[in-house]
């Protein structure tokens, strides 16, 4: 899904708060106009930013994984040199507001030393082992270089961090544009869906797994920077336009691997969904299944897991305390429950030939549906809620009166309720003119894709609002916040406590709201 | 000298003229649905003014009545007095005097929920619930099988009840395989209370002005009353 209008506004807001307003101008220019060269940016960015400054900012944004450079091969036979272009990575920018979630994932799995290290990478963007050791040495409670090295190794093994991608991948020009369409219908069924430019760039920039997550990463002069070994053909390599050598030469530079971090959040969300809708036992089984299938997931947004046997699930399950309490018969009963369908829940697990497949898409869709329906309920009321549920269930155009009949709502009020939802983009409407009747019939439908997009845009908007409100609250108590807490008394103390309560509510609400955004955008 | 009147072709028996007779015939043939003046004009080819006059006269002689159409506001249907308006006109079983009988529906829904709560087997077929309404003591509480189904469907839309297909096992032992059964969604779904989504629980999720709200606009997060109320500690 491409960025929505408020998605862009929110992303720009995040960049502004992290890197200031000049950086946000450059970023906004890229987000709105798509890939550009540095010269184009300095020409097009709203305020005058000279070329050198643009390059500095691009370097900063690349360092923080918000922008990726690339170039496209000139057409065959052409003498012209490929120009370097830059693309803003919307997803990664939004990740900037959820670093604490990533940190928590790592803390739970690998402990605080590893999460501390990840925090360093999250706030610095990219670092070498040596830089990590330096940071540790300067900190209040140094862990020592051995611990750092160990933790780093654990993080790489769990794929929570990765070697930085190739600075400037070169894309071939052939597999682009209309040529792809000519392959015919038959071929297109075999080939994957055409990737977006962003996906192609990221794929080209990402080194193969052995380099991306090396087992041994001591200083090694031969294969250090990712692009040395990546798929860039000989002769295509050249000095990057911006200087990347932030660390001492020949040292591996590390960065957080958002793909894996998001995958873990996705898995956690799935377990939570199962726990809430089914029970603890089913959740444990789901957790084990996700663990079994994880290493074989190709991308974060996988629809279905690989098939797995009862044996492998049970084997994984008994590794945990909760799992050891379950008998095989109980696990079987849970699997049966997980594969059951009702009007309330779809099947979460697909059973086929004695093996089981996790249906991620169906699990996530349940949570998305709940999220949509709760908004409809809050904003438009109980009648609208029924109509919306009826229309989602029907998944086709239905006439106003039929909707009133099915939802048992007053016919006089039904059109107004439907119109309200339609005006806000939550329903799709079609007019049907019939001869002999002077009022056209109105037909309605829930288009899940359109609603998701609409909601996502509104959720970015709401995140922005929460953040702006928090800043506003902070600003209006600026002086009070400067005073030490223990010196406050009476009315001042009360005011300070009130401020605390407000900021806790705003922060926790935006944390939960971000869970919903993940659900619609990243899972 | 008296003015000569155009002689009205009075029908000997009922005292109505030829046009009125045609129109009344048409209306009677349409039974509970009746006819609109538009239909009368097209079907009988009588001039519009004469149709209006005939309809007025038939009404006056108490041969036809006027019924509004619930589905198409502003369109009047004329029925012969001996017929009751059909479902299409009244809006159906749940309407009385042109308005939806919400309190009756809600009452019936409550009864259904209580039945489902009381039944230990948890999974219940339509017929089981219908049997309760069938033998209801007062006529007002009696429901047809179809009406019972409608009430249950409505509870499903409310997310209070769920539909499950029987697989003949454990919970479903008293049912045929494939039969549709009903059961309470229970606390897990909030029992009809909608689970609070991350978006719905912030003011902006429920805000009717979100489309007009901008960072520095007239409606903005720094000035908005919804936030004010929400953050009022
Ligand atoms: S900030 Fe206030 S006005 Fe704006 S969308 Fe949120 S609740 Fe509505």
In short:
Chain B: Its main location: nucleus. The complex is a heterodimer of chains A (523) and B (233). With 523 residues, chain A is mainly α.
Write the layout of secondary structure elements.
The complex is a heterodimer of chains A (523) and B (233).
Chain A: H1 5-19, H2 21-33, H3 38-44, H4 51-63, E1 67-72, E2 84-88, H5 90-95, H6 99-110, H7 112-124, E3 127-128, H8 129-138, H9 145-157, E4 161-163, E5 170-171, H10 184-190, H11 197-205, H12 209-212, H13 226-229, E6 253-256, H14 258-277, H15 280-294, E7 308-309, H16 310-317, H17 321-324, H18 328-338, E8 349-352, E9 355-358, H19 360-380, H20 382-394, E10 398-399, H21 400-407, H22 414-423, E11 428-432, E12 441-445, H23 448-476, H24 478-482, H25 490-521
Parallel strand pairs in A: 1-5
Antiparallel strand pairs in A: 1-2, 3-6, 4-6, 7-9, 8-9, 10-12, 11-12
Helix pairs in contact in A: 1-2, 1-23, 2-4, 3-4, 6-7, 6-14, 7-9, 8-9, 14-15, 14-19, 15-16, 19-20, 20-21, 23-25
Chain B: H1 18-29, H2 37-44, H3 48-60, E1 64-68, E2 76-80, H4 87-90, E3 95-96, E4 99-100, H5 102-118, E5 124-125, H6 126-134, H7 145-157, E6 161-165, E7 180-184, H8 203-206, H9 225-230
Antiparallel strand pairs in B: 1-2, 3-4, 5-7, 6-7
Overview of this structure, please?
The complex is a heterodimer of chains A (523) and B (233). Chain A is mainly alpha-helical and 523 residues long. Chain A contains 25 helices and twelve strands. In chain A, strands 2-1-5 form a three-stranded mixed beta sheet. A three-stranded antiparallel beta sheet of chain A has the order 3-6-4. In chain A, strands 7-9-8 form a three-stranded antiparallel beta sheet. Chain A is globular. Chain A starts with a helix and ends with a helix. With 233 residues, chain B is of the alpha+beta class. Chain B has three domains: 18-94, Arc Repressor Mutant, subunit A, CATH 1.10.10.10; 102-196, Orthogonal Bundle (Arc Repressor Mutant, subunit A), CATH 1.10.10; 202-233, no CATH class. Chain B contains nine helices and seven strands. Chain B has helices at 18-29, 37-44, 48-60, 87-90, 102-118, 126-134, 145-157, 203-206, 225-230, and strands at residues 64-68, 76-80, 95-96, 99-100, 124-125, 161-165, 180-184. In chain B, the strands form three sheets. In chain B, strands 5-7-6 form a three-stranded antiparallel beta sheet. A two-stranded antiparallel ribbon of chain B has the order 1-2. The model of chain B is unreliable at 9-13 (pLDDT under 50). The chains are: A mainly alpha (523), B alpha+beta (233). The complex binds iron/sulfur cluster. Iron/sulfur cluster binds next to helix 8 and helix 9 of chain B.
